[in-house]
Amino acid sequence: MATVHIPSLMQKMTDGKQTVEVEGSTVRRIIDNLDEAYPGMKERLVADNKVKPNISVAVDGVVTSMGMLEKVREESEVFFLPAIGGGAG
Amino acid sequence: MAIKDYEPNMVLATKKFDVVGTRPVRHDGTDKVTGRAQYGADFTATGLIYGAILRSPHAHARIKSIDTSKAKSAAGILAVVTAKDFPKLTASRDEYVQLGELNTRLGYLRDNILADDKVLYKGQPVAAVAAANAHVAHEALSLIKVEYEVLPSVLTAPEAMKGNAAILHDHLKTEELGEQTDKVSNVAQHFQHVLGDLEKGLADAEVVIEREFNTATVHQGYIEPHNATAFWNKDGKVTIWCSTQGPFEVRDASAASLGLDIASIKLVPMEIGGGFGGKFEPFGAPVAAMLSKITGKPVKIVMTRAEDLQGTGPTPGSNMKVKMGVTKNGKFTAAQAHLAFEAGAFPGSPVGAAAMTVFAVYDIPNVVVDGYDVVVNKPKSGAYRAPGATQAAFAVETVVDEIAEKLGIDPIELRLMNAAKEGTRRADGPVNPRIGCVEVMEAMRDHPHYKAPLEGKNKGRGVAVGFWINGAGESALTLRVNSDGSVTLSEGSADIGGTRTSVAMQAAEVLGVPAESISPQVVDTDSVGYTSGTGGSSVTFKAGWAAYEAANDVKAQLIERASKIWEVDAGTLEYGKGEIKSKSDPELKLTFKELAGQLNSTGGPVVGSSNLMPPAIGGAYAGCIVDVEVDPDTGKTTIERFTMVQDAGKAIHPSYVEGQLQGGSVQGIGWALNEEYYMSDEGGMMNSSLLDYRIPVSLDVPMIDTVIVEVASPTHPFGVRGVGEVNLVPPPAAIANGIYRALGVRMEVLPMKPASVMEAVWKK
Lengths: 89, 764
Hints:
The complex is a heterodimer of chains A (about 90) and B (about 775). Chain A has about 90 residues and is α+β, with helices and mostly antiparallel strands. Chain A contains 2 helices and 7 strands, in the order ββααβββββ. In chain A, β3 and β4 (about 50) form a beta hairpin. Chain A is globular, with a radius of gyration of 12 Å. Chain B has 3 domains: about 5-15 and about 390-470 and about 615-764, Aldehyde Oxidoreductase, domain 4, CATH 3.30.365.10; about 40-150 and about 220-310, Aldehyde Oxidoreductase, domain 3 (Alpha-Beta Complex); about 470-610, Aldehyde Oxidoreductase, domain 4. In chain B, the strands form 8 sheets. Chain B has a 7-stranded mixed sheet. Chain B has a 6-stranded mixed sheet with strand order 12-20-19-18-13-32, sandwiched between helices. Chain B starts with 9 loop residues before the first strand and ends with a helix. In chain B, about 60% of the residues are buried. The model of chain B has no long low-confidence stretch (mean pLDDT about 95). The chains are: A alpha+beta (about 90), B alpha+beta (about 775). The interface of A and B includes residues 53, 55, 82 and 86 of A.
């Protein structure tokens, strides 16, 4: 299972867990399964079926522009980060 | 390498190639040095008229009314537009628009093109006119009457974060990674990176240093102001000629802001007189397009210098608090940073990048980084060469220098003891692949500059090291083989720093032909696939990779053609050093040029193409050594000697890489010592000319020595990492550390102008 690193500001949704093990061969499946285990996660990360533009996904240290389609391996590490240039709000 | 082996502008090459790593004359050199190159302001067309933009005189005000009637009826005025004349948006105002390294919401983009109901900085566009000449257009602006209700303004992040601060956007609530808080605020975004246990790390520390830093807003200082010419044809198609780093980003943003299909706009990139991150936003293009729609003529808008300084996207001021803990033997145990960056009028500062880079030079087990994106009444911040990283490095590298002093450890040795390596986890999460941080530090330590005696009073030597993520993105490219063996290369990346040549050289290396036989062309957006902008130090990396793939496509096609000519299986042939030959029959061989002459008789043209989006891996490190002399009576700092060391991965054209290192160093010197948006209490920029906004001139800097380190990127075919940005990251910190060693004062502000240095001396 992939290791998903939960951003500190979202750890209240995972009962304080900094990392969780999640099944899934793509970022989409990882987020779906994460949301099943910790409801509300998907709403925080996804809008219009895409990773929110002000959030970056990094898989194994590489920020991907493939978003939900990015492949994830069994031993992958997945991170959700603020995008480099915000634009939030 | 021993010290004695160092020469000026050294390349510590690790792998040799035939073309890559050599120094051919740049393909666009003749046009540039003879003045024939066409920049945006040079563009002309039949029936061309000129636009001018009326800008807000207030930093924060509600627009009560705009009366354009006098301007519209004035002699010679052909059109007047305000935000109300723009088409209704077909997409949501909340939709994101990509602008190079930064992005923004469509609503903010539109408001920054022409303000609608509120102005949020002095210099924000409010209305525009078109006339037969630029002088008449500018004169007519005074005929437009705007009634404002002036509002209180806020100019710095700490001020804007206070509970009683004036609010810029009535709807803006702080977002924390997808969750919106309830309170209306100037803080658009807060995020946090956590690694390990900060409290434990601080408890383990035997020395803790904590300082607070403030940096001023600075401009990229490109020499060519923003410009755009647009023609709205009767068939609804729009052509834009402009100077931009992101032809496709400006095309898409213009289409979105004008409510047009993307295919309705063709953007023709002109030569670009500098950008450094500041030329991604379509400031004048949509306005020129609207004026053209009304008049039926092509409309050109060229910003004055004052408009460019007041009304484009500088890099933001910041407020940063950095705390670091260390054991007595010099091992970092903990680090904490509070980074509050001014986004300017609309959300979107580079604080995210600042937080990714702030401690990335080091292997620190326990880290907390808090980032805040804060709107203030200044122009919306844009990207500037490693956006956010220079501010962050100024803070961290000053604290690291203080730790070295407190512990009595050589500052480079302390950095080496704690340097990030392959396998080090960054505070924002990712684990480093192969990186060149240690190699950069070792090259600094071993450089004769670092060992040279520094004699005389009030002199100091400072060092600092910086990191930048480096980007990649989409790249599309074609190679067309001509019958005489020359090759035409078409790409979509605007060429700011010699990338036509660095990209062509990578194709030439694969094809085994001279770089000069490739003719690289930067073409318009209708003529090549989507290519992300020239930012993130990405072009030599991504377009070079595309050139590599396209050249391999050409090779495969040429082998097929040779197999037809010789009536042999293609699998029996091979391509090497510009020659196609049989693996077994020495009689069967053709040079690239010979085969190029036979294409039409063997099946027609050969076009190699590549469309790709390679991942950016590893980032880049740079460090500098600087000797300063500081006048203790005036506080003026003179740079006496400067050496920049940078890991390029692989320097495709070392001269251009050296140029990047030198250019970044000079910009860093300007940022360190002189440059700032000097603001009035009412929020107006007081120094909006290059006479008063003091970028360095040749008399301000010594010859910048360079060392190119080559630790190959683990993925790129030639090991390229990208070289355009990280060299701007360490200079301000290194100069601050030099000033400390000269005068004994720790500088906590940028710029370290004479008044700031004297203030620090008097406080001592």
